[in-house]
Structure formats: C-alpha cells, structure tokens
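**Fold tokens**
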Amino acid sequence: MAATLKHLKIAPKEAHQSTVIFLHGLGDSGHGWLPVAKMLWPSFPNTKWILPHAPTQPVTLNGGMRMPAWFDLSTLSSLTDSSSDDEPGLLSSVSSVESLIQSEIDAGIPAEKIVVGGFSQGGAVACLLGLTTSRKLAGVGCLSTWVVLGHKIQELVKPGAKDIPIFWGHGKDDPVVEYEYGVRSVELLTKKLGFPLVPTNTAFARPGLRFESYPGMAHSSSPQEIADFKAWLAEALK
C-alpha cells in the first residue's frame, strides 16, 4: 500500500473545482514551493494547491546522508543512462502521488481537472506518473528535470499518455540537471513516445508538449518561467 504523503495544502478562494499537486526537488520540502503557489493562488480562485513532502531516506549521491528524496540517486553526470535508476523508489513515489490524486477524485474533483507538476527530482516523478497513469489528467508540469527509466519507458507508458498536455521548462545554464538532459528527454517524449511538440509562441495545446528554454537560468526557476507556466496552467485547467 502506498504511503500517505504529508503535505501542505492551500484551499481555493472560491468553490473547489481543480487541484494542482506540485513536488519539490531533492533535499527540499513542500515549503520550498509555497511562495510560488501563493503567488499563483489569486489567479486560480477555484484551485486547491497540494505541496507534498518527500519521505526522508539515504541518498547515494550525497554519501548516504538521509534527506527528503522521492527516490535514491547515485549520479547527476549520466542522467540519460537510466539502467541504474531507482525503479522501486520511483514507482513507490508515483503510487503515493496517485493516492493523493485519488483523494481529490473521491472529493469530487475529476482527473481532467488535476495537474501534477514538479521540480528536478519531483519533476521526474511527475513526468513518470504522467506517462504511466491510466487517468486522463489535465496536464503535467516538468521543471528542470529529466525522463527516468528511459531504457524501458516504452514498455511502461500507457496508450493514452501522449494525449496529456505537458509543460517542460529548463534553464540553459543549469549546472545540476544539465540542459542537455532536458533536451534529450523532450526528444524521447516527442520522437519515441509520440507527444506532439507545441509550436513556438503557442501557450498550450491538447495534446501537446510545450518546451521552453531559459537563457541564464541555473537550477532554479525564474519570473519568466513562472509566467509561462501560469499561462499554460490556465489553459490546462479550463
């Protein structure tokens, strides 16, 4: 049974009609993305925000130190070589987020009004969930991240996955999850898995993968990326 994730919750200003679940990066917590959620909250009066906290576990990359992590990570230098990915940890986190989605559905919010997103490690889980869920989600947001389990993702992906809209943002000067891994991930999604690429200067398409690059942005976000994500999110939750 999937573990119940502790989380922060921001109730909608008006009647609850949609939900955004956003997963933080390695070593962080839901509090790390609370300022962004609060900034976007006024523009989405009918949307609940859920910011889960990853469980604490040893992380090989950091010498076995225990920290909040969605899965174990051994290297950042060969992220597209997925043979050493922590598949059990990844699938466990996906299952835990699926439980949060189910709770929202049980509360009367249809899957078509639920967006799952994440940053870095959290984005990797959000992307994997989007590819493997049987639900027709409103969309998936992937910030500064990469596609995990690439060596077998074609076996895992559900037939309707390519119909789910994706927003993918990545900084060109990211020294942690290097930009090339974002580019390769988007190529895998579009060329191997059949996601249609949204044309430049188009905010949203269903289906469609919108890929935005941000010159000068490191392993973080930026006002421009948040503005782009906001515009995409407004369309995804319509």
